[in-house]
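Hi team,

Filling in the usual template for the complex we talked about on Friday. All components are listed, including any nucleic acid strands or ligand strings, so the model treats them as one assembly.

SUBMITTER: L.P.
PURPOSE: interface mapping
COMPONENTS: two
RESIDUES: 484
SEQUENCES:
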Amino acid sequence: MSDQFEPRLIGFLCRWCSYNGADLAGTSRMKYPPNLVPIKTNCSGRVDPTHIFKAFAEGADGVLIAGCHPGDCHYINGNYRTAGRFPLMKKMLEQLGLEPGRIRLEWVSAAEGDKFARVVTEFTEEVRALGPLGWNTRTPEEQADAGQASSDRVEEAVPA
Amino acid sequence: MTDKFKFAMYWAGSCGGCEIAVLETKDKILELDANYDVVFWPVAADFKYKDVRAYDDGFIDVCLFNGCIRNSENEEIAHLLRQKSKVLVAFGACATMGGIPGLINETTAAELKELVYTKNPSIDNPEGIYPQEKLEVPEGELELPHLYDTVRTLDQTVAVDYYVPGCPPEAHQIAAVLDVVTAALKGEGELPPKGAVVGVAPKTCCDECKRVKEEKKISGFRRMWEFFPDPEKCLLEQGVVCMGPATRAGCGARCTNVGMPCRGCYGPPEGVVDQGAKMLSTLASIVDAPTPEEIAEITATLPDPVGTFYRFGLASSLLRRAKV
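RESULT (copied from the run log):
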């Protein structure tokens, strides 16, 4: 085990394209860092900013949203909604002091296992370079119980 | 002291508007007097902290606590009033969500002091005089409360029984809340379940707004001084950022009915965790442009999304404060 910082990343992956892309990367035995915890969503458009804020508030160092390429959405225009929402959300997070590199939107099709592996590798390295986020959303007392508990849970999910 | 119920009201980090709102209940205030002894209410009656400290625990039947936890004095009194009160109500936007003072969570107390006492263009402070927390004078040591970096809501500090949102809470809602509590104290009714938000309606501000709502599609944002808005049409549909869709009902949509957009003081509606996140979603979804890039261009014209979407709720939002 090395001493380097292992970022905790959350990935919201659309079930029609990007989750299958991740599956393809796995079944093709592609190698990429194990730092990203994938969460399957029906559509990238379903990923409410609430989910992303909660991820950061509970200890994520970076959040990836991945969906179908424009024009390929299973629900016709869900990913357009995602793309429309993303810049404003990013602006808001930057206003709150978040480095832009900690949040990323990517289009990954079901056939792009290699792209998925590349995105996760790049993202992991980028966030690793930024260091731990540690959004101080809790009072010291709360950090002692709730905050610690939630970061422990993420720790379990990400093998060191 | 009579055998009437005991009433207290306190202002922590707030402007005092909540106190005025209580007076706005008009003749209801006489009912308050008929049923309660005021045992602590700095704005209206001359009681000191030492009087409150001398009360038995649970002596106060109802305490309306307005204002956020901004400094060490606010925090100390919050703990004190929790100990002395049977029912502690977070009263108003600041106590429930942090309110306008909660916007300081975008920065720090040190930066605030620097702005106010040095950088502000109208300030002339060549000697760099800053307020000190402690000062030795011949008569002894003077002390000011410690200003915190992060504003907290009342329930992030002590356990809260009920919430009455609003900046300020509407008079008819305050009256309704007092009626419920008084009836329960007299044994004529039941208290709402602990943690309930009282004096509100279950839907969103839009449900109470009389304006005509059609299809929400906007091609850009406008501010109120830029045009004369149509008096009948939904303000959001006219490009004004109105927080109605992400705000709890209860105020009777007073702002929008007189032509001002909703600022979101009643907080998120039931089931919504983060008001700002929902408003962000709403706005980005109604921008009518053919490509995501063009939507991004339009949403980029919003100068201050955090201050707009979390005008009252930054301290109670998921992220609570900016990373510094």
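MY TAKE: The mean pLDDT of chain B is 92. The CA atoms of residues 40 and 48 of chain B lie 8 Å apart.

Thanks, L.
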